[in-house]
Amino acid sequence: MLPPKSPEESKAEMTVRMFPSNANPAGNVFGGEILKQIDLIAGLVAQRHSRTNAVTASIDRVNFLRPVFVGNALILNARLTYAHRSSMEIEITVEAEDLMTGKRTLTNTAYVTSVALGSDGKTVEVPPLKPETEDDKRRFAEGEQRMLQRLKERKKS
Ligand SMILES: CC(C)(COP(=O)(O)OP(=O)(O)OC[C@H]1O[C@@H](n2cnc3c(N)ncnc32)[C@H](O)[C@@H]1OP(=O)(O)O)[C@@H](O)C(=O)NCCC(=O)NCCS
User: Fold this and answer.
1) DSSP code string of 79-147
2) Which residues have any ligand 1 atom within 6 Å of their CB?
3) Per residue in 63-93, pLDDT tens?
4) What atom in ligand 1 is closest to the CA of residue 55?
């Protein structure tokens, strides 16, 4: 078995400024642009944890709570919440920062499942996740429940 790793070891923060090419003519940033950034940071965290090629298996329903505008900075925070054999759940929060005022607004929360692949393209084991704080432990238990729910949904389809 691989040595366990804590969520702290793979967590990431990323800040990206939004330009007109990321938005519709009214200045609202495309949902697809935000999803892309969510996917990017989730992949980074998964690779940090597993040190393998990690691919996105699923993204749970993502709600767009508030608009993001051209000129805003998008601030993404991501951490591993749960890991099974080859799959890892990453929680991502997205905030929009108005760079003129500094005001930050929560715009999205998302859960991405990444799966670790070996050089032959087959799934490989990842290090177990070792939750350390009470918060980590709560996230881990909730992540396990979501993973079981996804398994049920996969079986149905
Ligand atoms: C993700 C993928 C590797 C899973 O392959 P698979 O043959 O279905 O693998 P398995 O059924 O053996 O499942 C492997 C693991 O993935 C998990 N998994 C598979 N599909 C999943 C899904 N839709 N949601 C969440 N977890 C999933 C399984 O629960 C299992 O987890 P575990 O090893 O921790 O128990 C495969 O579907 C794939 O290559 N998809 C394309 C990925 C891609 O191109 N992403 C975009 C670019 S990054």
Assistant:
1) EEEEE-SSEEEEEEEEEEE-TTT--EEEEEEEEEEEEEE-TTS-B---PPB---SHHHHHHHHHHHHHH
2) 55-58, 84-87, 113, 115, 123, 150-151, 154
3) 999 999 999 999 999 999 999 999 999 999 9
4) 48
Q: Quick one: 7-156 is in which CATH superfamily?
A: Hotdog Thioesterase (3.10.129.10)
* 57 C-alpha to ligand 1 centroid (Å): 5
Separation CA 114–CA 129 (nearest Å): 14
- Cβ-based neighbour number of residue 73 at 10 Å: 15
Give the tens place of pLDDT for each residue, 13-69: 999 999 999 999 999 999 999 999 999 999 999 999 999 999 999 999 999 999 999
Q: How far apart are CA 120 and CA 128, in angstroms?
A: 22
pLDDT of residue 133: 97
pLDDT of residue 1: 85
Question: How many Å apart are CA 111 and CA 109, to the nearest integer?
Answer: 7
Q: Determine contact, residues 48/10, Cβ cutoff 8 Å.
A: yes
Q: Give nearest CA residue, ligand 1 atom 45.
A: 56
